[in-house]
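no rush on this but wanted to send it before i forget. theres a chain ive been looking at and ive put its sequence and its fold in token form underneath. i want to understand how the tokens follow from the sequence so walk me through it. thanks a lot i owe you, the record is right below:
>
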Amino acid sequence: MGSGAGADRTNLRDGVIEFVIRRIEMRCDANARLRPVVHQNFASRQLLGRLFAVRHIQDYDPGTPFGFAFGLRNELFVSEAAGSASSYVLGANGTPALASGAVSTHQGAPCWAVVTQDGRFGFTGNGAGSVSAFTIAPDGSISLVDANGGTALIGAGINDIALSHNSRYLYVLQTGGAQAIHAFRVAADGHLTPLGPIAGLPNGTRGLAAF
């Protein structure tokens, strides 16, 4: 599978420049031709901090936002490298309103974020070597599945996380220590059942995609 990204549109509204990037997931068909699988619009990660800086959100400083993912009900789930995660609900005009601010993961460097297909759970991949699971309430608020934030402990640095297309499985790329991909089954309550690592990745492996 491959992916490509390009600027989809730039809007100037009320003095705010809005950038939307289109990511195109590709898969080889039976004739070895690339076919688009998923077209997903998302705000550029690098621009997320600028978005928060331009739009004043209830006097809240988002504390080093790094990764983010969208839920089913216009929720925005954000990992914050300073050690927390936050959530927002997007209004009709796209303005985010804070639902939960800086919920501590109690784990180091939560940098990557994903949300399950049903919108019930969010996960952060923590650079220090763990995964934190969050429940996402209908109002967009979030809370830890495990009080200590350590839903899955890898034991070394994490570089990326990804969910399968049906969100039944979570994959975690470990680049600190062993180079491996760890697979987990996502339980109905948001807990993760380990299915074992796949080791032997080339040195310098970075980034992870799942389908």
